[in-house]
Amino acid sequence: MTTRTYQSDVCIVGGGAVGKAAALGFSQAGLLVTMVAPGSAPLSVSEDWDVRVFALNHVAHDLLLALKVWGALDLARVAPVNAMQVMDGREKAGGHLAFDAYGAHIDELAWIVEERNLNQALDTALKFAQNVTQVTGQAKQFEVSDGQALVTLENGDKLSASLVVGADGAQSWVRGQCDIGLDYRSYGQRGVVTNFACEKPHKGVAHQWFVEGLGIIALLPLPGQRVSLVWSAPDALAAELLREPLTALADRLAAYCADQLGILTPLQPEQIKAFPLQLICPHSMIAPRVALIGDAAHVVHPLAGHGMNLGFADVASLLAAIADREAHRDCGDQRVLNRYRRARREEVALMQITTDGLARLFGSDLAPLRMARNLGMNLLNRLPVLKRKLITHAMGK
């Protein structure tokens, strides 16, 4: 069998949204890009509402705008988030925290985008991207020399590049080849996702309830009178939610959202999915001639909705570090990669600590902690300047 050798400036391993965005960015910077990922079925064009959604912040929005991807989205299926209500789900008079775009002097806090809509827009942009070669295959071997990195596929094809970008998810093959250690912990929860029609208009408000023993329930606005559920549920409860009909799940949710959203009705056709929740903290985002981005570089609890945003911020920082490199340095030069690592270190660490701390705090059944938590939420709700700073950080500014 004849094998091929691909030579490029950047080799991206992974075919998810973050890897696609990186490929587009490198291409627009005039670099030669090879992108390798296992074969997958083409995305279907469907009127059904995708159960996996992302709350994209302003950094993600600005990156997609710069890559000319935002305009390729089906914007009729994108819902702006105008406000967010965070509440104690057990006590009517418990903790309450509200954020809104008006108070932050912005038009939107975030945008809710379906996974399929996002990937279709990225795929459309890649069709017109110059200098991007997409290769279907499974990476098997990785080698690094002084000036190049070499990825060999199972079929014998070789991909040579100055820089290899690991965008291959939480179980990253690239990260494993570099012997980068990591800290790992399972939350013992699964993210249960599905969609409902709501009787009352949601008015662009995202709702989140912290419920002792039951996890974290979030209802995010979709276009029209529809909402997307993300329930971070303990494993046993998640299994129960997946077994029961969606009408029973709607009845469970009524205890929290009936006043705001009225009766919830499952969308047709009914769909529900779940994914494990975990904390993954690699000890480094770089290795010789390697940069990690997205879930390969960090996995956080979804309670703040920032997993995809962190990945897009990785892309923006890596593109900036390479664009600002000295003329005599190639894009895989160690000093360039060190600048990328330093640029991302503080934000990633802060998000890991914050989301993990909140997951622990709001998952506790201890009465003193619950009282302190509710007191803190109510106090913060009365401090508009501090709230504005939190919103600004959440937007990625």
Architecture overview:
The structure is a single chain. By secondary structure, this protein is of the alpha+beta class. The protein has two domains: about 5-50 and about 115-185 and about 280-360, FAD/NAD(P)-binding domain (3-Layer(bba) Sandwich), CATH 3.50.50; about 80-115 and about 190-275 and about 365-395, 2-Layer Sandwich (D-Amino Acid Oxidase, Chain A, domain 2), CATH 3.30.9. It contains ten helices and 19 strands. Strands 1, 2, 8, 9, 10, 11, 18 and 19 form an eight-stranded mixed beta sheet that branches. Strands 5, 6, 12, 13, 14, 15, 16 and 17 form an eight-stranded mixed beta sheet that branches. It is globular. The mean pLDDT is about 90.
What keywords describe this structure?
single chain; 397 residues; alpha+beta; D-Amino Acid Oxidase, Chain A, domain 2; eight-stranded mixed sheet; globular
| Oligomer designation | single chain
**What integer is the average pLDDT?**
89
Integer count of domains: 2
Helical content (DSSP H or I, runs of 4+): 25-40%
CATH superfamily of the largest domain: FAD/NAD(P)-binding domain
The major sheet is characterized as: 8 strands, mixed
Under CATH at level 1, the class of the largest domain stands as Alpha Beta
List the helices and strands in order: EHEEHEEEEHEEEEHEEEEHHEEEEHHHH
